[in-house]
Sequence to fold (181 residues):
Amino acid sequence: MKKISTYRNRLIKITVLFALVFVDVSMAQTDDLQSNNFWQNVQFGGGIGLNFGNGFFNGSLSPVAIYNFNPYFSAGLGLTGSYSSQRNFFKSTILGGNVLALANPYSQVQLSAEFEQVNVNTNFDSQFVSNADNNFWANALFLGVGYRSGNVIFGIRYDVLYDEDKSIYADPFMPFVRFWF
Fold:
């Protein structure tokens, strides 16, 4: 009877071990499938800007990653950074991020909502402006509409939080071009 009990315990241990290995392997395969499927639905894009002349320089970089939940809805996150300077007058750095939601009710139409929060750090040359250095946070909530052709979208967006005295943008309406890869 003791041999049967020992044999049964060993059989139970081996069965449990195989079951754990099988569950672990099958879960790893499921994770791989979900992982591959996840990355197949991710798109990268963003914007690059460069403007200079007559002592003025402005450069910006704004990478974005979105996840396509289905052909009609996508959401993602982005970073934004820019540097501006006017020789002998000011230097400004803007760093922040955004959250983006895109809806495609028709294949050529894209609706967007984007919340952006950035930190603005501006230093003025003291000979022109005294005690005017600034470091503050600015928010924008853009609602937009665009025309989509393949992986390129042309459109316009509107900042619903725009305040002429507080916004870092000159106008609440902004044209945009988005590229996705």
